[in-house]
Amino acid sequence: MSKGLPKRSEDYSLWYNELVKRAGLAENSGVRGCMVIKPYGYAIWEKMQRVLDDMFKKTGHSNAYFPLFIPKSMFEAEEKNAEGFAKECAVVTHYRLQNDPDNKGKLRVDPEARLEEELVVRPTSEAIIWSTYKNWIQSYRDLPLLINQWANVVRWEMRTRLFLRTAEFLWQEGHTAHATAEEAVAETVQMLNVYADFAENYLALPVVKGVKTPNERFAGALDTYCIEGLMQDGKALQAGTSHFLGQNFAQAFDVKFTNKEGKLEHVWGTSWGVSTRLMGALVMAHSDDEGLVLPPKLAPIQVVFVPIFRKDEELAQISEKVAELKQKLEAKGISVKYDDRDTERPGFKFAEWELKGVPVRVAIGPRDLENGTAEVARRDTKEKQSLQLEGLENTLENLLHDIQENIYNKALQFRQENTVKVDSYEEFKRVLDEKPGFVLAHWDGTPETEERIKEETKATIRCIALDTPEEAGVDMVTGKPSSRRVYFARAY
Amino acid sequence: MSKGLPKRSEDYSLWYNELVKRAGLAENSGVRGCMVIKPYGYAIWEKMQRVLDDMFKKTGHSNAYFPLFIPKSMFEAEEKNAEGFAKECAVVTHYRLQNDPDNKGKLRVDPEARLEEELVVRPTSEAIIWSTYKNWIQSYRDLPLLINQWANVVRWEMRTRLFLRTAEFLWQEGHTAHATAEEAVAETVQMLNVYADFAENYLALPVVKGVKTPNERFAGALDTYCIEGLMQDGKALQAGTSHFLGQNFAQAFDVKFTNKEGKLEHVWGTSWGVSTRLMGALVMAHSDDEGLVLPPKLAPIQVVFVPIFRKDEELAQISEKVAELKQKLEAKGISVKYDDRDTERPGFKFAEWELKGVPVRVAIGPRDLENGTAEVARRDTKEKQSLQLEGLENTLENLLHDIQENIYNKALQFRQENTVKVDSYEEFKRVLDEKPGFVLAHWDGTPETEERIKEETKATIRCIALDTPEEAGVDMVTGKPSSRRVYFARAY
Ligand SMILES: [Zn+2]
Ligand SMILES: [Zn+2]
């Protein structure tokens, strides 16, 4: 099953692509740049959605749904945002097909059915949503407006990779409106923290929380906050963003409210999102050369039972025991699969469930039954141990907890080992080539220097971390003064 | 709040539109034919989704996600399906916008960024999914393949109505593949039954289960099963469809499997779907001139508490009691809202929650507290009664159960009263004009007669019900023999 999975050390990129396909997460479709998310991959995404959705609701947000299409004139209203996305917009120009007179059985676009105004397929929904908020907001009593949408978006990408960069992807986009700048900034930071909480406690991915440089800001935002994780190849991956929009969209769409003093003011806005890109982060952060390593909290199957048997009566006895254990585990909310296929051998099954990243595998044979034990293997460390069947549901519950923690700690240790302070440009380049990871360096704060470093090294400023201490220094390239280090890395 | 809601008896259609908007379910957007689903409406849709999704999973289906876009050549592969949807396809022809040289600050479609092949925005996903299944299915061991997708689809409609007919709508579409025709038919019928179960036990909408006539079949299907409900104006509404696709898509996309005997065969398929149209059915089946009447199982808020007070200390005492009751109710999984706004009077609140269809309203004043009682009003019958606070959580739990049943029974009684057998065309027309509803009449089985009746009366054959007994008769129009009655109605 996992035979022939490329090794990370040999070709990380190929390893990733093959793993995503072979583990049944996703595949390329017959539509350029668009992927098919397969059932096993979608089951993980559903788990992510459920957890995030609960977090959004706990922080006071409601879901809604806005149109897929945005008329061009509406799209271009906020100029910076429009300019930022113009180059990757899919555009609907016609609304009908007809039989092709020159080609029997084929269709062509009906030239008579041209739209008066072209429709942009949403690359992000600020425009359509703020054009709607105009009608929803009159008074301070209508604020804050805290809305989220689960949706598909389209950004036409020339070079795509499964989950990480696809023409169509799934995401959630929060869009909130507030009476004051302070409240909007607080919301922006709150959602950044929600994302960091999710990344660390569910994805098991330690993240750096920070602010983007102006160069890397969301088009139309005054500030973009982000969480950045480090993948096993030393590249950074932006796992979520939260934008303080100021009054930009309120001005573009004329969204005003009467404040408590009876004066008209423009509304303050935020937007924030995470996408199916998180699936890529999940794979790249933890998996190994045998396959996926899923954190138990996001694993569609947390425990798989594999019977070891020769005779039918052996299988019957094992099945009876497993049914009993399965029930006890499920009563604890643990998802269990019993792989009793008689068409495959145990070794094949072991490899398959390793490939699919199931956190715990329990093998039970006739000898185990006699002894009242089972062979329990954890996916993360590959350790095996013989455990008592009596009370196994409790042992496994604790084990799943330990695995979740261990995966996080391993990723944290990796990040710590691959985050270095650097004070010269020479060293900066050497680190990037020899032991890539996060590089903390001084930067003079200019877009020119940032641009130059990007061109010369392909490293970008991932963020100015929120928790970086002030520290006097000089820019490693220009020698100009700097008051704090920023996070550089090559990135996905 | 509900002031000025039009009356059903005066203008049913206007009543519906106004109710959908004022209750906060949905509104028209700035995009032709596309709606915005507002938070309260979306919360109901989420409840529907959750219930249906659980039902699909219990019957062995997994979710996945397939691309929004379908290349034209792929779309046209199954000719009947393509022909059926060609006239309502939104088509993407370009993938980039650019600055308009003639119009500063505006964008235009970049003429250089024309797609080599146009992309159809999915009106339904058989084509893209079967083109994918070709790679997933080789052997009988890969079957059955039981997949569902939650997605948005686009069908360009000239005349749209909120929820009932919109250019973009949300739905789920199941797409399954099977080794035999029998198994595929069984799946088709199973999903019809799942839909009927959902309609009757959650939407509280009694439905007729049946088969469509060839005229009304899904384009590309061999048989279309459907559930049909009756709205309060006597019009029918198709609430869900389940299609037996035969081998049509397998042939169009060359999807074959090796059977147990080692021979290659085409795969058998089904597809089935329900959409945000169900929201329209929900509104039209049960609501009244004061607003929505929501079945408790789908109500985002099941119980609303309204404090009746003059002084702050009265409010404080009531709030304390409500907090206690709220906790007990929520422990039973009942969703509760406490409307303690001090900006609105009780009468305004009562009207607002009536408009929003909250099944149970509990008003508590200082006198109630003294007596240990509360005034409980049910939304469906508008009955009020004084109930003991002691054990109120149990009383309300039972009450919600009764309301769910009562709403269903009322709709069932309405349908029974508005389903008539008719044996002459004269009577048929008179019934449709004077007391519209389901009309059971004999039909000679020809598309010509069906078409003629449709043109002359606007009534269509909703379905040949699965449970209609055989009964010799003659077609009311042509006098030709018929062996069973069919369901006619004017429909949404
Ligand atoms: Zn960052
Ligand atoms: Zn029918």
Automatic annotation (TrEMBL), chains A, B:
Keyword check for Cytoplasm: yes
What SUPFAM superfamilies does its record include?
A: C-terminal domain of ProRS, Class II aaRS ABD-related, Class II aaRS and biotin synthetases
InterPro entries documented for this protein: aa-tRNA-synt_IIb (IPR002314), aa-tRNA-synth_II (IPR006195), aa-tRNA-synth_II/BPL/LPL (IPR045864), Anticodon-bd (IPR004154), Anticodon-bd_dom_sf (IPR036621), Pro-tRNA-ligase_IIa_arc-type (IPR004499), Pro-tRNA_ligase_II_C (IPR016061), Pro-tRNA_synth_II (IPR017449)
- List cellular component terms (GO): aminoacyl-tRNA synthetase multienzyme complex; cytoplasm
The subcellular localization recorded is: Cytoplasm
The chain positions of domain Aminoacyl-transfer RNA synthetases class-II family profile read 27-295
Q: Which PROSITE patterns match?
A: AA_TRNA_LIGASE_II (PS50862)
Q: Fetch the CDD domains from UniProt.
A: ProRS_anticodon_zinc, ProRS_core_arch_euk
UniProt entry keywords in alphabetical sequence: Aminoacyl-tRNA synthetase, ATP-binding, Cytoplasm, Ligase, Nucleotide-binding, Protein biosynthesis
Q: Which domain of life is it from?
A: Bacteria
One biological process GO term for this chain? prolyl-tRNA aminoacylation
**What is this protein for, i.e. what is its function?**
Catalyzes the attachment of proline to tRNA(Pro) in a two-step reaction: proline is first activated by ATP to form Pro-AMP and then transferred to the acceptor end of tRNA(Pro).
Q: Which HAMAP family match?
A: Pro_tRNA_synth_type3 (MF_01571)
**NCBIfam families in the cross-refs:** proS_fam_I
Q: Which family does it belong to?
A: Belongs to the class-II aminoacyl-tRNA synthetase family. ProS type 3 subfamily.
| Name of protein | Proline--tRNA ligase
Q: Which organism is the protein's source?
A: Adhaeribacter soli
Q: Gene name, please? A: proS
